[in-house]
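Data deposition worksheet. Section B asks for the primary sequence of the deposited chain exactly as it was used as input, without tags or linkers unless they were present during the calculation. Section C holds the resulting structure in token form. Section D is free text for depositor observations; keep each observation to a single sentence. Incomplete worksheets are returned to the depositor.
Section A, Depositor: J.P.
Section B:
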Amino acid sequence: QVQLVESGGGLVQPGGSLRLSCAVSGSIFTIYTMGWYRQAPGKQRELVATITSGGSPNYADSVKGRFTISRDNAKTTVYLQMNSLKPGDTAVYYCNMASYYWGKGTLVTVSS
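Section C:
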């Protein structure tokens, strides 16, 4: 059974940083593209960043230069380092594997 478990969300002030983690079990992690998505209240879920099995990242324009996606294949974990956070980044962040499997999400709130 494939499981994706996110962690690392919380409350942070504007300009602050957080690092999200997504631990994957029950699958061959190394062969799949991994992604982070987010859904703000009243809005549709949107792509934040993806990383291929070979480590090539791709970012939404709204987070380029502020967020960094990475993966540790030995730990079967994908990370999202978020810097210079803005109130507009407030959302539930979801981990995705192979455009098919989803975690339950972790809430990020950016507020003073």
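Section D:
Residues 48 and 62 are 8 Å apart (CA to CA).
The longest strand covers residues 18-25.
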